Amino acid sequence: MSKKDESGNLQGVTRREFISSSGAAMMLVPIASLSWLGSCSGGSKESTAVTPPASYTGTDEQLLDEVEKGSFQFFWEQAHPDTGLIKDRAKTSGSDNYTVASIASVGFGLTALCIGDKRGYIPSDQIKARVRLTLQTMLSKADGHEGFFYHFLDWSTGKRAWNCELSSIDTALMLCGVLTARQYFASDAQIVDLATKLYNNVNWPWMQNGGKTLTMGWKPESGFLDARWEHYCELMMIYLLAIGSPTHPIAPDTWKAWTRPTYTYQGITYISSGDPLFTHQFSHIWYDFRNKRDDYADYFDNSVKATKAHKLFCLSLHDKFSDYTDSLWGFTASDSMQGYTAWGGPPAMGPIDGSIVPAAAGGSLPFLYDDCMKVLRTVRGGYPNAWCRYGYIDVFNPLKNWYNPDVIGIDVGPTMLMAENKRTNFVWETFMKNPEATRAMQLAGFKVTA
Q1: Are 285 and 417 in contact (CB under 8 A)?
Q2: Which of 218, 384, 400, 419 is the one with CA 20 to 30 A from 292?
Q3: pLDDT in tens, 114-126
Q4: Dihedral (CA of 125, 128, 134, 139) sign
Q5: What region holds the Glycoamylase-like domain (predicted)?
Q6: Residues 6+ apart with CB under 8 A from 331
């Protein structure tokens, strides 16, 4: 029996597990056949009584400053002062009783701390002390096995929470933040030493469990999860981290072991497994795929196409959900009025209801800047309740006047980090200074195209 956390979500369920367990047959059915999508309004079409929203009146740079400062505040305030572990989610007010951290949130947070130091949000000595504390906690207190860590941890002790899995993807997200901090604070010997040990400790071949691909995780009670990282999604960072490991690498030809299915929507053909938009964003936050390609694709351009297709998909739903317009579109895995859900498209996935998830546009800023920035400006200027002390809330539904009371670290993070990448290339340039990152891309067969 599944337990629920304080916000009613399934405890210990990752995005990837949620997508897998929901079942492709239900999640990928055509939206026209989902009759229950219109049930709230008693028909097949949502209310069209949506007043065109106002737009943000400042400059793009002013808005992105606000976004990054608010996001930084989340990662600073929602870290435990004794461990540095960062909550998986928090109330938009900043005051709640949540006690569970996620290691993915830690990875985004460590990178956010580097940005905060670069931009002078708070004194550098305080930021460096927080980075050291967080790394030391992960190395000496956080529950893990074979160098991997449990997805959810008690934020005050580092102990495993909710009987969750030892997560390969969340360990990878954490390590991307760890390695970003190692390079940005390269003059701090303690940070460099702690970060290097965390990366070198990971036994990547063990997570293969005798197979060619990596598994999604492991539990001490039942062993390895059946699911594997075997088709294109957010997986690229895992394989590159593993191939580039100086201590426990996997073979470079594992890069060719996962499939790259293509999908065509309104004349746009791109690699996609039908997953939500975040799968085209996460690896790109740290690894710089611009002007490079392997034997299969230019993955940066692929994410450009995926973002364009998602926008067109949203616009195709305008007759049913009148809020979806050229200046307001985008959803990816997030909370919803019914709890956490993995929704996306194309093809239609999940209980689509006209909701807007700002991280969908925020995480794609480098891919389709003008289109995504228009969305962020519209949300900031036209929907004041969708903005909080930590920037954009996780999700809202203009058609139902519903605003989610929470923010989630893995949605706050991509918007902040991709905003900084678009503005200064900072995360890309800092992370790619890691010799393991550049070497892994070379071993995987990447060539510069321009």
Answers
A1: yes
A2: 419
A3: 999 999 999 999 9
A4: negative
A5: 228-435
A6: 276, 277, 314, 343, 344, 352, 355, 356, 357, 360, 395
Residue 29 tokens read as 């059915």
* Tens-digit pLDDT profile for residues 367-377: 999 999 999 99
Residue 168 has pLDDT above 80, yes or no: yes
Neighbours of 199 (CB within 10 A): 20
Q: Which tens digits make up the pLDDT trace of 182-227?
A: 999 999 999 999 999 999 999 999 999 999 999 999 999 999 999 9
Amino acid at 251: A
Q: Which residue has the tokens 């996609």?
A: 272
> Cα-flanking dihedrals φ and ψ of residue 35, to 5°?
-60, -25
The answer to whether residues 381 and 387 touch, using CB atoms and an 8 Å cutoff, is no
State the Cα–Cα distance between residues 421 and 365, nearest whole angstrom: 9
Provide the pLDDT for residue 30. 38
CA distance 126 to 332: 34
The answer to whether the beta carbons of residues 74 and 391 sit under 8 Å apart is yes
- Do 259 and 212 meet the contact criterion of CB atoms below 8 Å apart? no
Pairing status of strand 152-154 against strand 148-150: unpaired
Q: In sequence order, which residues have a C-beta less than 8 Å from that of residue 333 and are 6 or more positions away?
A: 15, 18, 19, 276, 278, 340, 341, 342, 343, 344
Give the DSSP H/E element, type plus range, for residue 100: strand 100-102
pLDDT score at 346: 97
Tell me the CATH number for domain 15-34+53-448.
Answer: 1.50.10.140
Identify the H or E element spanning 69: helix 60-77
Report pTM. Answer: 0.92
Are 406 and 90 a contacting pair, CB within 8 Å?
Answer: yes
